[in-house]
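For reproducibility, we list the full input for the Dihydroxyacetone complex.
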Amino acid sequence: MKVLEAAFLKGYARMATDGFLQGWHERNGGNFTYRLKDEEAEAVREDFSENAPWQRIGWQEDDHSVFPGLAGEYFLVSGSGKYFRNIETDPAANVCILQLNETGDLFRIVWGLTEGGRPTSELATHLANLEVCKERDPELRVVYHCHPANIIALTYVLPLDSRVFTREIFEMATECPIVFPEGIGIVPWMLCGGQKIGEATAELMKKQDVVVWAHHGAFCCGRDFDLAFGLMHTVEKAAEILVKVMSMSAYKLNTIKPDQFRELNAPFGIRINEDFLYEKKDGRIGCMPEE
Ligand code: 2HA
Ligand code: ZN
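The corresponding predicted structure, in tokenized form, follows.
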């Protein structure tokens, strides 16, 4: 089978368009990886070329990333400098499939980027995330990064504290704690495009499916495209509601209370992390747990 006919390629391209239409991918903003199943790689192997050189994963000078947990695997990855709005119309020019070597420290492009280029500048972060995700759930295959305006806006006015950020988002929609009961991780502003921010993000993704990069964007993971896209969509929708609420008032008159969140646990078969269910003194938005 040709890569262009494969269901995983079509699902990936459709999600890229969906993200673009949401306004999350201005210019070349965002990047996106999918870790292929063995049978998916096998089915399109005839379309792979093994002539491309092996390359270091690092992008910045002193980077030398190694991902032994992903050795030998294949990944569908967006191209550096490529635009999400072009992925669905011309996947072969804008994305690639790459393979990691047997020690997990070099990659080679086996398909795509037909007009040249490199995989995303955030490759180290994507692989670091995919490695820790695979460890906690072997079926977690999608890592997605985008620039959603409301999530980013909140990083200027909420404390950059996972407990506060998560709790304020949880209060904006009952489905939030059901969809991501482990909450949102926060990486303070750091230089993007390298190994250090990748390590900081992956440390949080060991437990959390959503990580916000302050003043930049967000990452999420998922078992498939629907779950990863749906997760980002849910967080950004809640962030949009919070921006609207904060535009009207610094205080909430009504909200969902900790014991009401706890009522969700049994019927939905979840366990909302208690770190987010602290008592609040009043309805002021963004107050720290100890205030
Ligand atoms: O431009 O989003 O984080 C791609 C990015 C870098
Ligand atoms: Zn970005």
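The chain has ten helices and nine strands. The chain has a mean pLDDT of 96. Both points were considered when choosing residues for closer inspection.
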